[in-house]
Every structure is written in C-alpha cells, then in structure tokens.
Amino acid sequence: MAKMLLCLAVVALAALATAAPKPEEKFTTKYDNINIDEILANKRLLNNYLNCILDKPKARCTADALELKRSIPDALTNECAKCSEKQKELSEKVIRHLVEHEKASWDEVKAKFDSTGIYEKRYEKILKEKGVAV
C-alpha cells in the first residue's frame, strides 16, 4: 500500500511539473536601446553588421550582431513571437532602410535567410501595410 501511494505521489508530481506554466521565452532586450539611426546612417557600421549576419569572410561580429544573427531564423519562423515591441519596431526600420537604400544588401539577406521566398510571402502584406514595398 505504501509503495502504491508513493507511486501515485510521483505520478501526481510529474503531472503537475509538466502542466505548470512555463515562463514565456523572449529574446534578450539587452540591445533594444542601440541607436539604430546611427548604424543605418553610417555605411561602415551597417556593413559590419551585414557582414556578420551574412557570414562574410573576415567579418568582425560584435556581441549584439551575433545575438541578431542567432535570432533572425527564429524570428522569421515564429513571426517574431519572442521579440519585444521595441525589437519589432527596430526590425521594421532596418527592413525599410535596406529595401529603400541598400537593395543589394537586402537581396543578400533574403538569399541567406529566405532562399525559398516563404517568409517574403508570409510577411509581404504586413510590410505593405506599413509602407514597405518588398
């Protein structure tokens, strides 16, 4: 009888542990306050970020560029579910800048992260509503 109660207790604890809500996973907000306008206005800084995320030879990746590079695939796949509101704003601003001013770089980014065009199709309507013509 004691063994049966112990077994039931273990099963009940296991059920509670798996049913307990897990904290929502988010991307780090450590870099949310970077000056994105300064980066976009400075060709050298922008190219450093682009070279890093595109795995260009001799690219020097800063900590924030590495974090961005690691986050892009998940953000695309999961509709930026782990993004903060600030990260969504910054993403839109960067995409707009690349599309309007750095088309060749935008094409390279798309080739690396969206070679099949699935994400462009998925987000095209949203971007157009925000005035970004991809």
From TrEMBL:
Give the SUPFAM superfamilies listed for this entry. Answer: Chemosensory protein Csp2
Species lineage? Eukaryota, Metazoa, Ecdysozoa, Arthropoda, Hexapoda
Q: Which residues form the signal peptide?
A: 1-19
Per its record, how is this protein called by name? Ejaculatory bulb-specific protein 3
| InterPro entries hit by this protein | A10/PebIII, OS_D_A10/PebIII_sf
Keywords, ordered alphabetically: Signal
Record Pfam families: OS-D (PF03392)
